[in-house]
Q: What sequence folds into this?
């Protein structure tokens, strides 16, 4: 079994494992808007495989991380729509 | 920053089925092999999230073979440039890495084709493979209403997968008409393995409404998708949903091949029968040479792996499979050709380039891809035209320009490191 821990998505705790991506944790938290587009539209993930860049969020303070390509880790702090 | 250097006799880019097969065969031939992928683990799209203990037999076999081979797995690591022949640069969590090679095998796979329609930028409108990928990486889809739309066999595979995870899959809307699907089915009938896969799929999809000659015209919702409008030549209607999973078959990832100067033909990397591209010593296998499914990717990977390692006789053993699977690939292309009714779906206000929010109305005024880039910034955002490029090609017939480095956005300090190394 993969190790279980929790990550925070916009301050709320979400159960996660190291097999999960940050994107999965965000969607599990009920958040659907990941970012604002250049004209202010709400956007969510599209491709799930690292090519569309729609799933960019802030992870541990680093901006523009593709959440579909990053695995959850203990104490990870994820912020969307920044 | 860690700016490490590694060198290999054979370097494989992409650890999907084609890359895994290539790396295993090259390693078997006894040369030094490295295999790079931008995901944390090997598997590519179809085997995403699978392990050596997987109950998907092919996946378990090949992942075990790779793990027990002497090929070195370099992941997650993303190749973004080639400062000089024989040397690629890639980003990893430690910074930039340089990868030297004598022979290179490009197995960069494919992505979904997306077409713009009103509402396609709403959250929870995703690719079909996109939604599947998110479920494979831990999202709970149980009880959610899902509509699948677009084109290609992937819709069925994803429908079966999502349903197995408890999704309430309502409708699968395939734009191709029945007449073409039936012809495709007959072509399958001559292939034992494909037909048994199709029959298993049919069982797993029982009671889901499958509509051929049916396409999405709009997605509606406040802050996220809540319903979808579907159309056939006879009628138009609306269905409620929590997710719209929508992809129009696949397009090859040819950016790296194009950057390295490999010749493309009809949008695909041209190779000889040993999978060697127009650039000597650079091979290509899997979806970038033609969308042909799992078996073709594996056959081409095996050929490329042995050929790159200098074992041409062993490579030739797979020529029969390669030829037979290529015929399947052509049947696929004919069956899932896009219908003309998909072109006028976007309205003047529909966004086509999601990175730069360029609307259809502005693009319509341009004369070429180059003019569109200069005047509207279409294709100039972080995806570098990977999403809007194929859509623009379908809508206006403009071909994207060849790739420029870096083919993936790279942090400034990484680029600086590359420049210093030059
Ligand atoms: C989203 C999606 C889902 C799919 N799901 C299914 C399915 O459920 N069933 C099915 O039968 N078929 C599926 N397919 C089709 C399937 O991918 C093909 O049939 C075939 O298996 C492709 O194998 P491949 O090795 O050619 O490419 P892929 O499996 O696509 O592997 C290519 C790999 O290269 C990596 N890569 C690309 N560029 C770089 C770079 N610059 N640096 C580092 N790594 C890089 C990619 O991340 C990827 O892991 C799917 C396709 C897509 C796009
Ligand atoms: S969802 Fe497309 S890059 Fe992450």
A:
């Amino acid at each position: 079994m993969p190790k279980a821990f929790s990550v925070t998505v916009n301050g709320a705790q979400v159960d996660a494992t190291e097999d999960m991506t940050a994107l999965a944790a965000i969607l599990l938290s009920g958040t659907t808007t990941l970012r604002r587009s250049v004209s202010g539209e709400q956007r969510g993930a599209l491709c799930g495989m690292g090519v569309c860049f729609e799933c960019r969020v802030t992870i541990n303070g680093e901006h523009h991380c593709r959440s579909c390509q990053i695995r959850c880790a203990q104490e990870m702090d994820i912020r969307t729509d920044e | 920053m860690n700016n490490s250097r590694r060198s290999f006799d054979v370097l494989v880019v992409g650890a999907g089925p084609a890359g895994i097969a290539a790396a295993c065969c090259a390693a078997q031939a006894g040369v030094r092999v490295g295999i790079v992928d931008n995901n944390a683990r090997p598997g590519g799209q179809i085997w995403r999230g699978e392990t050596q203990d997987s109950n998907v037999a092919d996946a378990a076999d090949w992942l075990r073979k790779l793990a027990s081979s002497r090929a070195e797995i370099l992941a997650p690591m993303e190749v973004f440039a080639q400062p000089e022949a024989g040397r690629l640069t890639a980003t990893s969590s430690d910074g930039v890495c340089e990868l030297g090679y004598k022979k290179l095998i490009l197995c960069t796979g494919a992505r979904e084709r997306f077409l713009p329609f009103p509402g396609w930028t709403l959250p929870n409108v995703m690719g079909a493979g996109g939604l599947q990928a998110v479920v494979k990486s831990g999202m709970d889809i149980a009880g959610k209403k899902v509509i699948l739309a677009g084109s290609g066999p992937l819709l069925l595979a994803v429908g079966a997968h999502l349903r197995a995870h408890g999704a309430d899959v309502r409708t699968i809307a395939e734009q191709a008409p029945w007449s073409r699907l039936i012809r495709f089915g007959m072509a399958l009938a001559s292939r034992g393995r494909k037909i048994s896969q199709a029959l298993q799929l049919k069982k797993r999809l029982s009671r889901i409404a499958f509509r051929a000659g049916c396409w999405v015209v709009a997605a509606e919702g406040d802050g996220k998708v809540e319903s979808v409008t579907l159309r056939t030549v006879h009628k138009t209607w609306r269905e409620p949903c929590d997710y719209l999973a929508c992809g129009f078959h696949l397009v090859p990832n040819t950016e790296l091949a194009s950057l390295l100067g490999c010749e493309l033909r009809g949008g695909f990397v041209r190779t000889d029968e040993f999978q060697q591209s127009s650039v000597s010593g650079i091979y290509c296998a899997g979806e970038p040479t033609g969308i042909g499914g799992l078996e073709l990717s594996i056959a081409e990977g095996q050929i490329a792996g042995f050929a790159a390692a200098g074992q041409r006789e062993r490579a030739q053993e797979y020529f029969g499979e390669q030829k037979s699977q290529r015929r399947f690939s052509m049947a696929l292309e004919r069956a899932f050709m896009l219908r003309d009714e998909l072109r006028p779906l976007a309205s003047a206000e529909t966004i086509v380039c999601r990175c730069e929010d360029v609307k259809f109305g502005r693009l319509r005024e341009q004369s070429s891809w180059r003019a569109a880039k200069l005047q509207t910034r279409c294709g100039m955002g972080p995806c570098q035209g990977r999403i809007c490029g194929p859509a623009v090609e379908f809508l206006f017939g403009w071909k994207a320009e060849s790739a420029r480095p870096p083919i993936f956005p790279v942090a400034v300090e990484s680029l600086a490191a590359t420049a210093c190394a030059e």
